[in-house]
Design brief:
With about 850 residues, the chain is of the alpha+beta class. The protein has 23 helices and 29 strands. Among the domains are: about 20-150, no CATH class; about 655-680; about 695-725, no CATH class; about 735-750 and about 760-825, no CATH class.
Length: about 850
């Protein structure tokens, strides 16, 4: 594969990365140019991302991938070409690849990849792309498109009168949102006798199909089924849970830690706004004149510019709360003294990469451990970026907003149902940038109204998070069918409250100002203090019940605006606790708003619907939601804390997964066939283990050669004599090494110190073969304590040059140590 010469101007090829290699495609093709669309609906589009992604996939399939090398195709297969067309509102384009003999187009690189690899493989076997045969289930179905040069998606910071597109007064309600992913599940194949009833695409047991089978068997009974969810044959599940005295409940430990923290404390897996550097002696405050958030110095009594905001992913939280105490309100604005360093007492934040770019995920390597004062929720992006031109935004901010409509559940723990309905109870829900867990209080998005302004007045204390399987069918129970039910939904159940007396369940539909209307009693203050987890919830105002307290309240996931934060935290964020604003707020009794970030969240979700290429094309008034199985899939990240995860983890191949399942059978006490010995030991992790080269490896001309590699035998024959190491003594080698040389002895006659590099010392050692031939130094005769005490002057003298190889005898023990060389008489 010769190095490429850039034939045309690219944005990525030849510009990003150290070394680019052009890969020439084979002549096999089935492309049909007659299927290309005509003008003016379509126009030719850049094929750069196709060339890069397909080349890397092909090279990786052939096993020719080299570290530090980037690949791209010289062209697409003959008959294939990329085109783009404008969306209805003209704010973005959809990119499609035409040329398939069926006349249909590919709307993503991932969908075309299996067909391309089938072509490059000489059309052997059956192609399993979406147009040729039954598609393989993949974690992501992308809708690839690129904006035209200089184009940006509409993302206004402020709503202006007469604005179109993203006007907050538009009638697009979240209740009209529709999920576009998770409608299908991986295809399955029936296994041999004794195997699990159904498996997923990785071969792991699908316990949910087992539950459906039991549910169907209990059809017609007086009650359905209820049972715990234990995926004991999944190594992923076992790595996070305790089972049969093996493992640790890591997820439950994390959930317990979260439940004991304030609501404003960032959680692992959340997207946030953060700044790597915070000016010393400054505070992030609201400029009352410009309403912009800047650094403020009380010493200088002036504002000193904006922070360098970027978006990031929380990958680690403070781990030593016992010594430094939990994160509290002072951490929001100040840097309290901590006993431990930030890598233990701070948050690890990784810059968020582009979820639409599967090639470049290097932004995650830009991370830092920072205190809480450097971090704000992602929902604050509008007010934090106020006054900063959009062309100065860090790219990670738009990357994070692209995932504002991603959703995934955490810790599925209980299955219950009565045919044909069933529910899977979960302990957490990632929605957009936030993590919601059971026990949290969430703000509910306001319902569509005819008024000019929308206000958030309702909240709910979450008691259940449910994945509902609606109208399961007998064919859904079959092990090789992709679905679990005809429809799926996610709902949250709990107790709801409101700040609007008109929405109290006792007078809904009545006029509270009428004389004949009996006003309902508010929720007692003591109940507010005990029912709500966030401290100071009563400071938001007077609370009323939104429904009959004897019943529950259920909302869809898209009605969740975000967590309810502590009132004091909201006042700090919005500037109400600043000096002048605080005095005015106290006089007027201004309460913190529930919807201070309402516009930012709704704008972010609209932006994600347009920008996320994994979503299908949506109608103008609808929100598109991407349902994922894991948080890593929802964010499409490659690494977390430097460890590859999800589809980017090359270790998760078929052989390794089979090996893991076999080991799990052994842990579970099952009988395993002798075939278990066919597996090779997996490479041991360097984390916490022995570091360095493998035993027997040689260094030749600065290159490490391992046993069995080409040239190892020749290197062994010409092995360079090793430098003599310090022989083992009964004396203290540490003290001896300290007495061999001093700073004064290393100085030359002029008093100037001389230094040598390792590369300069090695040749000087090689040039003295007499050292290698020198006999081993004579070891001093071991004497007992009595002999040493009786003969203090009987010290064996060595040869003149023996000091080159043996440290001088020094005090290496005490009178209590056996065999020590301590001689009191010598003093």
């Amino acid at each position: 594969m010769p190095a490429t010469v850039r034939d045309r101007e690219w944005d990525i090829i030849g510009r990003k990365g150290e070394h680019w290699v052009k890969v020439h495609v084979n002549s096999f093709t089935d492309g049909d140019q007659s299927t290309w669309p005509g003008k003016p609906a379509y126009r030719p589009s850049s094929e750069e991302r196709y060339l890069i992604h397909l080349a890397n996939s092909w090279v990786k399939q052939q096993g020719l991938e080299e570290p530090g090398t980037e690949y791209h195709l010289d062209k697409l297969p003959d008959g294939y070409a990329t085109f783009e067309t404008d969306q209805r509102n003209g704010t973005q384009v959809y990119k499609r690849l035409f040329g398939h003999p069926s006349g249909r187009f590919y709307d993503s690189i991932v969908k075309f990849e299996p067909h391309f690899l089938w072509l490059m493989g000489g059309k052997r076997g059956q192609c399993e792309c979406v147009h040729c045969g039954r598609p393989k289930a993949g974690p992501v179905i992308r809708r690839t498109r690129l904006p035209v040069p200089g184009e940006r998606f509409p993302l206004p910071l402020e709503r202006r009168k007469g604005a179109t597109g993203f006007d907050m007064d538009a009638s697009g309600a979240s209740s009209r949102s529709t999920p576009t992913a998770m409608s299908g599940r991986p295809q399955r194949q029936i296994k041999a006798a004794g195997a699990p009833y159904s498996v997923d695409e990785e071969g792991n047991e699908d316990v949910y199909k087992d539950f459906l089978k039991k549910l169907l068997g209990a059809r017609g009974g007086t009650k359905g089924i209820e049972d715990d969810i234990h995926e004991v044959n999944s190594l992923d599940w076992r790595a996070e849970h305790s089972w049969n005295d093996y493992g640790v409940d890591l997820i439950q430990q994390n959930l317990t830690l979260i439940s004991n923290q304030h609501s404003f404390v960032p959680r692992v897996g959340e997207l946030v706004m953060w700044t790597p550097n915070f000016l010393d002696g400054h505070y992030l405050m609201l400029d009352p004149e410009t309403l912009e958030y800047k650094f403020y110095s009380f010493d200088e009594k002036r504002f000193n510019g904006f922070p360098a905001w970027r978006a990031g992913l929380i990958t680690a939280v403070p781990a030593a709360t016992a010594s430094d105490g939990p994160i509290d309100f002072p951490d929001i604005q100040t840097l309290p003294k901590k006993q431990l360093a930030l890598n233990t007492a701070g948050f690890r934040v990784e810059t968020f990469p582009d979820p639409n770019n599967e090639v470049d995920k290097t932004a995650s390597k830009q991370y830092r451990y920072v205190p809480l004062q450097n971090i704000r929720p992602l929902s604050h992006w509008q007010m934090l970026l106020r006054g900063i031109a959009r062309d100065r935004w860090h790219p990670s901010i738009e990357n994070a907003l692209t995932c504002m409509t991603s959703i995934s559940v955490l810790e599925k723990w209980w299955f219950k149902g009565d045919w044909p309905q069933a529910s899977i109870l979960c302990k957490g829900l990632y929605i957009g940038s936030e993590l919601i867990i059971v026990g949290d209080t969430v703000r509910i998005t306001p319902e569509p109204s005819t008024s000019k302004t929308k206000r958030c007045t309702d909240v709910m204390i979450v008691s259940d998070i449910r994945v509902n399987l609606v109208k399961a069918r007998p064919e859904d129970v079959l092990p090789d069918t992709p679905l679990l039910s005809a429809a799926t939904s996610i709902t949250l159940v709990g107790k709801a409250y409101t700040l609007d007396i008109r929405r109290d369940y006792q007078i809904q539909g009545k006029d509270p100002d009428a004389d004949m209307t009996d006003l309902p009693s508010p929720v007692p203050v003591e109940e507010v203090k005990t029912a709500f987890r966030p401290v100071g919830t009563g400071e938001y105002g007077t609370w009323y019940r939104l429904h009959d307290p004897r019943k529950g309240y259920e909302i869809s996931y898209d009605r969740v605006l975000g967590r309810l934060y502590e009132a004091a935290a909201v006042r700090l964020w919005t500037g109400q606790l600043q000096t002048k604003q605080h005095e005015e707020a106290e006089k007027l009794k201004i309460q913190p708003p529930l919807d201070f970030d309402l516009k930012a969240i709704e704008e972010g979700r609209r932006y994600a619907t347009q920008a996320d290429e994994r979503l299908e094309e949506m109608e103008d008034d609808q929100l598109g939601w991407f349902w994922a199985d894991t948080r890593a899939e929802a964010l499409d990240i490659q690494t977390i804390n430097g460890t590859e995860t999800g589809k980017y983890d090359d270790v998760r191949d078929a052989t390794t997964l089979e090996q893991w399942r076999t080991y799990l059978k052994i842990l579970n006490g099952q009988t395993v066939a002798p075939e278990v010995f066919k597996f090779k030991s997996a490479p041991q992790s360097q984390v916490g283990g022995r570091r360095g080269r493998k035993p027997g490896s040689k260094v030749v001309n600065g290159r490490v050669i391992y046993p069995g590699a080409e040239g190892y035998e020749e290197a062994a024959d010409e092995e360079i004599p090793d430098v003599w190491s310090t022989p083992r003594h009964k004396t203290s080698q540490l003290a001896g090494a300290g007495l061999v040389s001093t700073d004064d002895e290393d100085q030359d006659e002029e008093g100037v110190e001389t230094f040598e590099d390792a590369e300069e010392v090695l040749p000087s050692v090689e040039a003295r073969p007499d050292h290698a031939k020198h006999a081993a130094p004579r070891q001093p005769k071991v004497q007992s304590k009595a002999q040493i005490m009786a003969n203090p002057d009987d010290i064996e003298e060595g040869e003149d040059e023996e000091w080159l190889f043996q440290p001088p005898v020094v005090r290496g023990g005490t009178e209590e140590s056996e065999g020590g060389d301590y001689r009191p008489g010598a003093e």
